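Reopening this ticket.

The earlier resolution said the output was attached, but the attachment link was broken on my side. Pasting everything inline this time so it's all in one place.
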Amino acid sequence: MNSTELSPKLMSEASSARSRRTRRQKENSDSTALGFDIFSLLTYISAVAGAGLGRDALLENTLRQDNQFVVYFQRVFVLAKSMGVEYYRAFALVGRQAKAARVRSLLLRLAGAVASGEGVKETIDEELEVEKEQFSSQYERSVESLRKWTDAYVAVLVSVTLVMVIVMISSIISDVANNVMVMVGLTVVAITGLFAYVIYRTAPVEVKTYSVGWGPSDRRKAFFLLSVGGLLGVLAALVVWKQVGLGPAVFTFGIFLLPAGLYSLRDDNLVDRIDRDLPNFVRVLGVSVTTLQTTIPSVMAKMDPRYTGSLEPYVNRLSTRLSYHLNPKYCWERFIAETGSEMVRRVMRPFVDAVHYGARGSAAGAICSQFALKISLLRARRALVASSFTQLMIPMHVVVTALLVFIFQILVVFNTGLSETVGNFNNNSQDQMQMPTLSSVEGLPIDPGTLPFFQTQDLGFIYTVTIGVILLITAINTFVPRFAAGGHILKCSFFGSLMVMISGLSLTFIPPVVTKLFAM
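Inline output:
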């Protein structure tokens, strides 16, 4: 098999991998994930319907798409072809059984359109416009909700940190039971994790990246560096922990994660640029195919690089492969896999299929480019919220970790000073035991060991709880920015490396600074 071809096995692996990374929703959920699939599938049907295909052929092509909404059309097709049910009755039967309100409404409208004899193209175009508005409205509501919850997360993170600080300071005044300290630490982590989960559920759900056996080069490098760097980072951190201390060990582990994070961030930025340039590329390609009355490969070979943008290297490789008369299907699959963008897959497949079946390139290009443009504009709104939140999370994590380490080191300094004071008092009292006179009662020194407060504490347990809370908050803050921004899970390696290095720096430099500060 030629190296430029995708085997059916790899194509199935791509589908299964995509299914694993997609957050599948229940059938009774009107989520943005389902809305994205409906919007995408109706775009495909609208583009291919422009070729004048019959209802049976159109449904057969639709059933071959990797889309969770396809299952409803599959039920309709089985009822119509295997059981002889008329299409309008099949749509109505499947629609009544659908649990999601959006799906039920759409299928019942399609049943009414088929019963009235309205044309397939006209019906799908109308439904596409309706779904575009519904999806846009739902996406914008999700983004607005995401904005509020990210603000709430920052406020809650500060609040629970202050609660932890108050409990730590309380241990100076009186003895705090170990179970109380553990309960407070678990409460801090649980509340932070709960709000992180709310952000995960609130953020719009969509698949942004497309991965197959190899994928984009930056993504492959990120995978490799994460697996190798993570293992080496753990080993190096253990050595540094034994030789130097915990703070430098944590920082060392973060350093080993950083290369994978940088490559994942670079890959994510490249996918964003490709998705932004895609609408213009598809529209120009469709108009050129119709105007020049030629094929897609011929147009791409002559296309001005200004219209390809970030897609230029991928388009050039695709044009070269097609010029050698390789299997077009595998060439297009390779093109989609190299870009690593799910948007490219959902835009180029309907366009190529529509032109293949005889639809006008300009009409198919307009439909597909409108879909790509709408998704790009919605993602830009989400990116505005996510970028602000991410930029705020970094200094916020600095403040939280530094504050916890600062307060704990104050406890260490106070505990040490109190122990020295008690020891000095005991030594002086043994050397200078005498009966006090009436005139010297007011100047009697007080034995700190007899006070019901300001007692020395065993800080080993408090240290363990504090370090545990810092590390768990670091882990939570690793995933929250990715929940807000979306994208590939590898982006967590970048945020994780930053958060881990910040925690390591706080554990390394804050204690000596506090010690010198209170020793002056």
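Reporter confirms the inline version is readable. The chain has three domains: 21-118, 143-273+380-424+447-519, 277-375. Residues 21-118 form one domain.
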